[in-house]
Every structure is written in structure tokens, then in C-alpha cells.
């Protein structure tokens, strides 16, 4: 059997099969894309550019008299503000804790539940329930459960003989607690992607490893994980982007507190934009977040591309 | 119209005799709705008498619909469920009230105003937002409304009106006031042989005495008040600040005055008092304080005057009739912080006159009393505080227990109360100050460190805003 890749027939016949004048062939694809491009322009590109313009303005909705061009002043104010650096640190900590744990737990669950054992289907369905809940509801539920006096978690703690803990008013615990709530909700997402990837893996390498006497640990470390690296990177990338924008849980559970222990970048944007109506500042902050997220995404994509190159 | 008024009197007298629970309120509204339906049925079958001719004539304005956003507190709820339908019944003007939370009202007002959106005509406004929205030209000036004879403007509590002004112009008609007053458990105080504290020092001794003691098998904490980050801790701290002679700003220079000796003393006292509070206090909002008061866990609390209805509700409270009220203990003086909600009209409303008429009707002397009887907020008119319908009202099942026994104290508090610093960026100021105050109450910063940070943060904010 030849190992030379077979090109798809459509690639060969494509140019030949398209009748009509050359100009028509050039314009045709663009005409087809035009509605989607216009839609994208209207709902995504235009607001993005508008927000860039706003970020260069001194623009408070409730003080229109002072509106004017401010150049990079908003960016300068942000970068010189200790609150911004605190928010950045808080956000990074949140992302690292939440996404890291979600990956470990999601991968572990996917490896365990990819096997055909009785009842696994029910368990798989059950594990997806948190994913179906609105983050606002999740935040509220956990806030109740963590309540010092009436929360079930503190009740369990007190039954076990420990003193009740005011989790959400503790500057050390509040952020990890919110990250854990995020883990509770989003681990199933990671699990779902990785389960699908595991189930799509070819059987042959595993069979060969088994014949060669590889242990389970060696099989996972040297066969499964390398083969899963792209799905893992994609899942981590998606969760990282999402975790960077965490807002709902903060809103429902701590509103940035205690002190400023959970004051994430998104919360800061909300505070400046919709509490203070300081749109110029909020837009500049949003652009800084976009730049940070883009940088992270670029690193991930480089990793993907690099690995792809290695494989080739 | 006469039957409508008769129905209203029935509702009012029923509520005058009993404490208003939500269920009772809805039952009353249901009865009113049934009466309305019955009358409509009469009209439809041509059996209507001349008695309703006036109401029918009022239907000339059937096309008018007013939309408002109110707080889902008791005053907003009765506006939506009782007064709006009643106004429609009387005038034919439909009034649709949406109830949304405090922060959401502020956000929504901002976005609607910027878009010059006429969707909503009326807004329930926390008074500290008046300067912000008035400066930007989003609210309708209401001095003419106040001076109109039908408004009876002289009767409003002076301080209630003062806080609804920006640069001397009135932008809202008060709907409810609730200054801080000190609640204390009279039964526990009697049992312990103690008298209610008149000074801050006495209050501290009192809460230290009660903290952790058991009364009737129930552990009691010294005091509680709002302490959550955001606005809760700032609102409590302001009463301490004002009562120790401090202020938020040097109003001549607009520089923050958070590191003055008065501010330092007040903050140190407040932080020290936090030792005598229940676990979880740093997350307490109005609801937690009220729940603790109703469940019997507190000996005293610094709470809005209006909230006292909750501890006299036999359906939800274990302390009915046990709470009494005095003015906030004096540092150098007793200066409680004021909470108040006003009603304003959007400058983009296409039905300003109708909106103003509704406010005039809702805040008429008669309806100010009725709002209180129906379980709304504390009245905004001086005359209401002397109205026998209120002063003689008793709690359901307790004919000797005066339902509004807090009113004399509330009225006294309205003589000395101080508002939040009234300037357009007050909301932002609260958010800014709240963070270092939270650090102080959690012990993350000393009083001096926290106040120095607050001073720096506010300074930076004021410079950025162009005040200096």
C-alpha cells in the first residue's frame, strides 16, 4: 500500500469545475463572505475600534463637560495605579489555581471514565451538571454554603470539631475558595474535551505498549499524554481565556473583597465602567486585558505550532 | 371613584390594625383586584351606577403609561403592588413599576440616561446619586413641584429635602428616610439592670458586657451593623465619623479629611467596637443585621430606623416587642448617618407632567401615612410623625405594643443626621474608602495605615477628577 498521501479529489477538479469568467471567480467568494463580514464588522470590529477611540478619551458618562482627548493618559493612570497591579496579580493567581486544578482533575476523570465499566454513562452525565448552571446561581449557592453561621460547609466543619471559618472574609482564603468554586463548575468542561480526545485515540499504540509490557503509568506518561497534548492545549487555552474574564462568581460571592483580595481585572473594568461611568479608563483597562490575553494565547499557539513542527 | 376610596380605606384600616406581612399585603392587593374586577364587570354589563361616572371620565388619559424603576424594598413593593394600580384606577394613567436592586438601578440609570432613552419616566434614587445625575442634566428640576400648593411642600422634613438638592436645585421628592438609630434589647437590658447607652463610651462598655453572654439559652453578641465591603462598612463608619466630629472632606478645598484627629479617633473606636460583633460580621449587609436582630443574637445594633418592622413581625421574628430604640450614642455629639430614597423624573421622559403628578399623589400627606401603614418606609413629612393613625397603631396580637414606637427617635435623629458627602463622584468615593476600611476591620492594616491609604486613594481620585 502506498504511503503517499492522497489529495482530495475536490482539490484537483476545483479550478476546472468552476465555469464562468475569471473576474466572477475572483469576486464570487468575497460576495459569499460579505454578509458574514459585514455582520462581524458591525458587532465585533466596529465596537472594538470604538473602544480603542474611547480609551484615548477623558470620558466620564456623568461628566460630559470634561470630555476630551487624553492621549495615553488613561493607560498611564492604569499602569501607575497599585490597584491595577493588584488586580493583575489576583487574576493571574486565580487563572493558575483554577485552570491548573481543572486540568489535573479533568484529565484524571477523563482517563478513569473513558473505560467501559458499569454505570460509567450515568456518572458521566451526572458530572456534567455543574456545567449547565449559570455562574450567578453557582456563586449564590456557594455563598450560602460557605456562610459562617448557616452554611452547610461550616456545619460540617463544626461537627468535626473545628471552629467555624469565615471563608469569604478571609484575605488569604477568599481567592482560592472562589477558584475552587470555578474548578467545581468548569472541571466537567475540561473532562468533556479530554474524554472526547481520549476516545478518539487509536488503539494500536496502546496495544503495542501492552504487548511490550509497559505499566499503566508508563502508558499514560509516554503514550497517552503526548498524543493528548493538542487537545490539552486547546482546552487549557479556552479555559484560560474564560478564567481571565471571571466576573460572575466575584459579583455574587465577594464583590472584590475582602479588602481587595478578589479584585480581578474584569471586576475592575465593571467598577470603573458601570459604577463610576469612567468609560475612558474602563476601555483602556479592557485593552490592556485584551493585550495580556492575546499574549497568553500567542504563547499557547506557538506551543501548538512548535509541537506540530516537531511532529512533522 | 368613591368605591375606590372606600376600598382604600378598608385596606388602610386593616393594615393599621396589623403588622404588614408580605402575605397580608398581597392578600390586600388581591382583594383590591377582586373589587376592581367586580366593578369592571358591572360596567361591562351596563349596570354601573353614577357613582363610577367620575372614574369613567378619568379614562380620557387611557393612553398614558408611566414606567418606573424602584428598589425592591418595602416602599418599592407597595408602590408597585398597591399604589400604582390604585393610581391607574383613579386616573386611568397606567403606572408600571419594575423592581431592581440598588446597584442595578444606578447602572441602569447611567446607561439609559446616556442613551437619552425615554423608556422610563420615574426612578427611585438613593440620594447620594442626585449630584451625579443632576450635574449631567439627566434629572428634571422639581422646585416648582415642591412649591405647588397641591404638594404641601412645607411639610417635608427639611433634611430630607436638603439631600435631594444639587447646587441649590431640587431634583427629587423624598419617599422614605431612615437615619441610623440604636436598637437595643430592652428585655436583656432590664434583666442585666442596664440602661441604654447615651455616649459612645457607654455603648462600648455595654457591648463588652453582653458579648458572648447567654440569655435564655441563647448566646448574645454585643452589636452588629453593616460591615461588608462596598458601601456597607462605609455607611456604618460614617455614623462614627460624624459622631466624633469628623467629616469626609475639607469642603473648601475638597481635600479628603480622613487623617484628622477626629477621623482617627472615630475610626479607632469603630475598629475597636468590631471585637464585640458576631462571627462573619465583615460580610454583613442590612439583611444579616436584621436576621440576627430578629433571631435574638444581638444585644444592640446600629441599623436603619425603617428596618424595625422586621423584628416585630411574628412570622419571622423571635424578638417581637423586645426591641426599643434610642438615638445613636454621642461621641462629641449624636450625628447619625442618613439613608433616604427619593423619586426623580428622567429628563428624557416624554410624560414629565404625568410623572410629576404621580409623584405628587404618591407623596401627598395622606399617602405618606398610608405608605407607612402598608409597611413602606418611614414617612418623609413632619405631620405624619404626629398622625394618630401611625402613633396609635399597634403590632398584630400585641395591643399594648406600639407599631411605630421608633418614630419619636427617628424624628429626633432627623434633626441631627448628616448625609454622605454630597458631590457627584460620591459613589466612587464610597468604593474607594471602603477598601482600606475593610483592611482596618480585618486587622490587615492599622487604623493609621488604613486611613493614610484612604487619604492617598481619595487624593489621587480627586486629582484625576480635576478637583485640584
TrEMBL record, chain A:
A Pfam family: BPD_transp_1
Topology of this chain in the membrane: Multi-pass membrane protein
Annotated ranges, domain ABC transmembrane type-1: 88-300
Chain ranges passing through the membrane: 30-57, 88-113, 125-145, 173-198, 219-238, 281-305
InterPro entries (alphabetical): MetI-like (IPR000515), MetI-like_sf (IPR035906)
Superkingdom of the organism of origin: Bacteria
Main localization of the protein described in the UniProt heading: membrane
Record Gene3D superfamilies: MetI-like
Keyword list, A-Z: Cell membrane, Membrane, Transmembrane, Transmembrane helix, Transport
SUPFAM superfamilies referenced in this protein's UniProt entry, alphabetically: MetI-like
CDD domains: TM_PBP2
Family: Belongs to the binding-protein-dependent transport system permease family.
Protein's recorded name: ABC transmembrane type-1 domain-containing protein
